[in-house]
Amino acid sequence: MDQYDVIIVGSGPAGMGAAFTIAAQKPNIKILILDREKFSTGGMRNDCKMNFTFPIGFPVEYWTEGVANRYLEQVVDFLKPDFLNQTNIETYQKRAERLGCSLLQIRQTHLGTDGGLALIKKLLAQLADLGVDLALGEAMEQVNPAEKSITTEKREIGYKALLVAPGRKGFHFLQDVMSTLSVPFVDNIVDIGIRLETRIEHYPIVKDYYDPKFYFPEKVRTFCTNSGNAHVVKERYATSRGDQWLSVNGHAFAPDFRHDNGLVNFAILKTVRFTAPLASGQAFAENLGLQASLMGGGKPLMQRVGDFRLGSRSREESFSKDLYDFEPSLRDCCPGDISLAMPAKILRAIWKAMKNLDTIVPGVLHPSTIMYYPEIKLYANKPTYLDEHFKVHEAVWFAGDGAGTSRGITGAWASGIRAAEGILETL
Ligand SMILES: Cc1cc2nc3c(=O)[nH]c(=O)nc-3n(C[C@H](O)[C@H](O)[C@H](O)COP(=O)(O)OP(=O)(O)OC[C@H]3O[C@@H](n4cnc5c(N)ncnc54)[C@H](O)[C@@H]3O)c2cc1C
């Protein structure tokens, strides 16, 4: 059996933040990073915009502003980001406040999908130079806490400390690990919404602020704005029964004016928190995803705002350039009627937020603007942690989005550092 001091499962920002912290402080320690993919799959590889201001990406159950800022400064020191310029923010803030909404100004960078991949490659090379073993394309399957070992599809590996950071896609895997370790958890929160796509002229704020963070009443907010060479994409998920459903998402390449398509896309999400007797936000979200897939013939739905306002479904001809002056960047979607698929309470809150947004940034509700549904952000599991370093069991720690300790690249990196500090105390 191979033996390591520390095994880190997941090479996303949480796993990397932990690996760099441990390798810097204890150069002689044997560290292994496992990832089921060749490169981490999340936002570092998709658009890679990073937010460096609390509370973006930091669930307030686990982070106070002071604690988050302490770790954020370490992330800044390590990644040395070039913050984007922001202009005219006060104008938008004043308009938002008049309506009972707000615009949060935050420090941001944007590398783009191509820039993110280059960063991942650079970081993996640095880890290899530090002597960290990388097993990419190898997935952890089970943990054996009595033996302090894990199994992958290839081998059994012993650990002194195990950090599991499998991201949001590792949701079911993490639940299996928690059940083996008897770690109690809840999963009662989910974000449900739509993604809007329009011409940059209809949402010109992105020239002043790349990813504007608007907050509206009823727990609705804008999220993940992409512009320039920007695209809406599909993500495929499977329920624990193996049924497939789709969520949309968005990304953009690094600025390159020769290839810009002149479009912008961003999500408008409502946070839904369930109380008894419905315990699982994930199960609820999966059912909405399945419902949308059913209506879209196995595809997400799309509808022009003009049709939505009139209460009519969109049809194939609504998405030609003849009718409006841009086509959807995600062609493989089904023209339809979102209001048939989305729960009324969620849709009402989102539509109200869209009208508020159109008053703050006039033009975003142009009839040509496209609404894609569903965009679902699974809030991950909330395990019961034993200490402030996200320890869940003897010699086992969790970090990152999958474990509910973060909701973005920088928060995940910070949570990895925080878990690593706990690990270092015990080694
Ligand atoms: C399309 C997309 C775009 C996004 N854009 C942004 C953005 O621009 N800015 C931002 O801040 N956030 C963005 N996010 C969110 C961001 O990706 C996450 O917040 C962040 O990556 C979480 O880091 P993590 O380390 O927890 O998980 P991840 O980055 O998801 O990494 C987890 C890794 O664990 C691996 N893994 C899972 N299970 C196993 C297993 N059993 N064995 C071995 N390996 C396993 C996965 O392959 C994955 O590589 C985006 C997410 C998506 C999906």
Give a verbal description of the structure.
This protein has 427 residues and is an alpha+beta fold. It is 29% helix and 29% strand. It has helices at 13-25, 65-79, 89-98, 112-129, 171-181, 281-295, 305-310, 344-360, 409-426, and strands at 2-9, 31-35, 49-51, 102-104, 108-110, 133-136, 140-144, 149-152, 156-164, 185-186, 189-199, 213-216, 220-228, 230-238, 244-252, 263-273, 301-304, 334-335, 370-378, 382-383, 391-393, 396-398. Strands 1, 2, 6, 7, 8, 9, 21 and 22 form an eight-stranded mixed beta sheet that branches. The chain has an eight-stranded mixed beta sheet with strand order 4-12-13-16-11-19-17-18. Helix 1 (13-25) runs parallel beside helix 9 and helix 2 (65-79) packs across helix 9. The longest helix has 18 residues, at 112-129. Flavin-adenine dinucleotide (FAD) is lined by residues 9-15, 34-37, 40-44, 46-51, 57, 139-140, 165-167, 169-170, 173, 224, 249, 251, 400-402, 407-409, 412.
